[in-house]
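Researcher: Sequence recovery benchmark, item below. Answer with residues only.
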């Protein structure tokens, strides 16, 4: 079976690199397409969400892998607008505790480092995340 050979080769390579476990599927960045779709195949693929064939889950499980976490996606009709950050903070009663401002484009690198610090502090407790030390790893545009 092709799947068994591919998994076997990947596992052997990982062992040769000193690894003791494999995680996935996800892209090179945890911010991209994580996981394996197990239901909802009747819907069209969505941006940044995995959309494998219906048989992919069985192929993975046949190699001894099991689900680690559930990942849910929510559909939001495009004709509805998202609440502004200010309205969301007001609704939660947090508007007095936070200051919203636009980024200072003249100090882009400082602003990027601020975003990275907030990201590391808030996201670091989530499964599969890792602390990034380099602001440039965020790949944010300068405009």
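Model:
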């Amino acid at each position: 079976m092709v799947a068994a050979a591919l998994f076997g080769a990947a596992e052997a390579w990982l062992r040769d690199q000193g690894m003791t476990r494999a995680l996935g599927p996800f892209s090179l960045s945890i911010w991209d397409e994580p996981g394996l779709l197990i239901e909802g195949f009747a819907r069209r693929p969505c941006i940044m969400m995995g959309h494998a064939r219906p048989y992919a889950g069985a192929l993975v499980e046949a190699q001894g892998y099991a689900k680690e976490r559930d990942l849910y996606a929510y559909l939001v009709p495009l004709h509805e607008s998202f609440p502004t950050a200010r309205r969301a903070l007001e609704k939660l009663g947090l508007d007095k505790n936070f200051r919203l401002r636009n980024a200072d484009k003249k100090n882009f690198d400082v602003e990027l480092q601020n975003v990275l610090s907030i990201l590391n502090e808030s996201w670091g407790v989530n499964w599969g995340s890792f602390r990034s030390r380099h602001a440039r790893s965020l790949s944010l545009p300068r405009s």
